[in-house]
UniProtKB/TrEMBL annotation:
Domain HTH lacI-type: 1-55
InterPro entries: HTH_LacI (IPR000843), LacI/GalR-like_sensor (IPR046335)
Source taxon at top rank: Bacteria
UniProt-recorded name of the protein: LacI family transcriptional regulator
Keywords: DNA-binding, Transcription, Transcription regulation
Pfam families: LacI, Peripla_BP_3
CDD domains: HTH_LacI, PBP1_LacI-like
Amino acid sequence: MTIKEVAAQLGVSPSTISRALAHPEMLRAETRVRVLETVERLGYQPNLIARDLRRQETRLLYVVVPTLSPFFLDVFRGVERGARETGYAVVMGHTERDVAREQLFVDQVASRRGDGVILVTSSDPTALKVRTKRMPPVVAALEEIKGLHAPAVRVDHHKGAMDATNHLLALGHRLVAHIGGPEKQVIAQHRREGFNETMLQAGLDPTAFPYLSGDYAVAWGERAMETLLTCNPLPTGVFAGNDEIAIGAIRAMSRVGLQVGRDISVIGFDDQRIASLYEPALTTIKVPTEELGYRAILLLVDKLRGNTAEVDIVLPTSLIIRATTGMPRG
């Protein structure tokens, strides 16, 4: 069954059939219903590959993430919402922080297997900078990519870290430690810088406890907290680089009989779903993950339509106070 045969059955032009399938809002309701009913009855399937070749587009966007953690899945959920609204399909590429895999996904889009990329952080921004002439349309999400000159939808990790540290200081904590994320990751660096700046502004030494950096993982949080528990004096407050690290720290404390929020206060970052479900519920800095993904795809679609110049959208973070922070004992 071809589009011409469907048109002959209805006594309309093939272009009317095309409009009914691609832009039904352009037709009168009566004509639209009649066309769609006939297409369904005859079993006509448009040749999408041929259509995309003519239009020089695939209507497919890539979302490239470093891990499949709940945090990045929430970002993807927002991207999907925007995709439904704008008529695109999205696929997720998972790099496991492997530079070669990240480059592979970018190459696939550059080869016209997709129309654009939402890059949710980058494993190696330097590698992207040197290939700017072969870059497909890109929007950066969560953090800007230095030197790439791509629009970005992000949060201010530095300010969020300052808010987290100030929360502990406002409760009266002066012995505060930081357990960071991967040392070379830009987001982890911004969060550490925010901690350091806040401590210095308060007249406190940000290096009073060991410099600790590792994976955004519960296991790393446990190991790092075990290190802090060997210090004398112990910290009374801990700012963790993300929620998973914070939960690992709390687990290490529990094993030695310490109570979070009473003996040592712990605050995380991100407000992943586990933060409110964990017992006790975790005090943290909320990142609007779903909104971040939603705004990123709208920005990318605008870029593909030629409607936007370079843009830097900064979404606000917020302090969420729950049960894992309190005043220091004594």
